[in-house]
Task: structure prediction
Amino acid sequence: MTEDKFTPYEEFAAREWPSDLGLWKNLLLGFIANMRLNMAAGAAETPMGEYMLDMFARIAKARLEGKPIIMHPFNYGPELFYAMDLEPLMQEVFSVGLAPFHLNEPYIDLANQMGYGDNPTLCNAQRPLIATHMNGDAPKVDLLFYLSAPCNSLATTYQVYQHMTGIPTFTMDIPYWSHDPASPYFEEKTLGYMKAQYKDLIPWLEKQTNRTFNPDRFQETMARVNRCRENIMEFNDLLKTVPCPVNSMESFSNYLAMVLAGGTEEAVQLTKWFRDYAAENVRNKKAGVPGEKLRIAWPYTHTFFDRDLFPWIEEKFKAVVIMDILGFYNIPPHDTSTLEKCFDSLALGTLDFSMIHTCRGPAEFYIDYLLRYVEDYRIDCVIIPMQFACKHAYAITKIAAEAVRREADIPVLIFGCDPYDSREVPSEEIRGKIEEFITEIVL
Amino acid sequence: MTISETFSEAVSLPNRWINASKNQGKKVLGYFCSYIPEEIMTAGGFQPLRMRAWGCTDTPMGDAYMSSTTCSFTRCVLELASEEKYDFLDGLIAYNSCDQIRRLYDNIRFKAPFPYQYFISVPCTQTAVTLDWFNHELVKFKEDLEKHFLVSIEEKNLKEAIRLQNETRSLFERLYDLRKKEAPPVSGSEVLKIFLASVSMPVQEFNPLLKKQLEDLEKSEGLSGFRARIMLIGSHLDEPEFIDIIEEQGGLVVTDSLCFGNRFFRNQVDENTEPLSALAERYLNKISCPRMSGGQADRTRFIMDQIKEFKVDGVVIERMKFCPIWWGEAYIIRDELKKEGIPCLELEREYVLSGAGAIKTRVQAFMETLEGR
Result:
């Protein structure tokens, strides 16, 4: 990407940008500044950067054109919304995007002052939303959609936001049981339950937006989702190669593609690019982390406030983090030859989406994922940077770690932190724990 | 022994009713929260017992396995389970009440298993689709009990259990009607003991006791000398001593939105339809707990109606530390109460009463505010 690529976005931001998307504009400008820094440092470029710029601009354009914007959480693919010509906005872009600049911390403080939760109780992936609303900085969206999973914290904050704004809202209940007949937790009604809820959602969307559900367009969308899934499954397989063909960040890009662009041609191209990139590196025996010595499983989210943590791990220990829990997008392609099968695919994709798949049911969903991750990717150690407020995950981390030690006989580090707030456990402390673990126990 | 003393006796676990049930060869099943129909267990000849962590003082196991930032109720239950303090229970029934309860259930399965364990997937929304799912879950639960314990849960037994539990709910309605009086004959702390007894002893023995208690209360003069009528709102509260602190400062608790309170007994089960469908309908669509998404407006309406009906002067919200659901709910309730000009005090607490002095000071100040209005 060249410097002149930024100009149209900056001009758009300066001239026509909708007034109620000020914080969104700041995210765009921050993102551009970050890309410039990366360019100056000679960092490798991926097409994700340009896609993100387009996404920021597209939502502003949708606002100017009166196209309905629907806000949804970080664990949901927006394919149905694209199929219905709506503009999806993934809410957690704010908390994740602001974290590296420490710019969500004032909103966290404001949420504290307002009496809306504290760091160990409510997740800061969502909590700043309430404060941005109170501050007049939240985007004015037309519709709100959220799920009952993976956690109470998410559902609670979305419910509070709905209360504060009165935005028409649809909540989808995520069942506890598995849709996989091979699972001991299989419940045959699970898939039908999800499909039935989708068949409630569609007329609701039609009514709210004066749009008509077009089955052909939906089938085309799901066919594109399938192509993405093919690419990602191949990519995931390529990451099993030693040395790993990509660095610690790239699997997260596939997640971004599916959570921001799932169902679009852009997502197909993005996932294809990453698949091809990994394949070429495998062919050339090129490592994502040159001189790879350690392979780390990171079965939780990134510590978003510290964007230099993974490069530091790579450089200091010649270690590669294979993928985080969001990067673990592991959904195979489905038969989408009929409309009904497309609904099956949509429902399955929702149940298996990053973090929903691993966290919505019994502890075994998470433990099995972790054990398979460790085995398939030939992992040397596990690091779990557990968020204090993440009750559903933190409360099974110890039994999961015991399973890893028992089944795979490799060390596990668990430590508490807040991925969105550098003040809870600062970078230096996190790095100290990781360094001590790797040098004293792993090596 | 007075009836009130009898109810107090039921608070401890195990109690003489549980011991008697065990001696009669009855199986005792522990269960969590208010979305699991006791009726199914009663119909199968089981003694249901609402899970509490009575007597827990410290939680090293709970802290280690669930983290010290999960709610203290769940940590306490894990602690007692690991110490085999629930060895009088023949089984445990849980559901996805909240993240912490579902993970407590996982930890119990892994670290301190019960002889029988069952989990029900209860939806978090109230629609025709989710009702159908919940109905199916109850059918599976009934069948699993039958299969595991080699019992047959007949429709007539389910209907009788529903009739009994409806009677309990009606008796509680009568009790709450008495609390509407200018001089309510019963304190909030005593009412909590009655609720705790109702979930800790056979319904067949509880109902006659409460009936008799109501007859006595209906004749009594009522309490006087209190400073304000209080509505208490919150989650799992099974410590009468917490309410004692409020009432000792002159705040008489006259109504509530609590798990051991209105959310327990409001809404009857339809006795004229197929029993499991009727149970699903009642339990999913009753006054909701904040675990349910989309039911907030109804919950607020219910609170406002209670405030009017019971002539409430002020509201106390008790919120368990580290509970995300109740923090969100409390935020909305505070907002709604403010709009209506209703005074409100929010108290964060641990499961095992601690910091009584600080709570007392805050309640005292709140009472003065109420009197100054």
In short: Residues 229 and 331 of chain A are 6 Å apart (CA to CA).
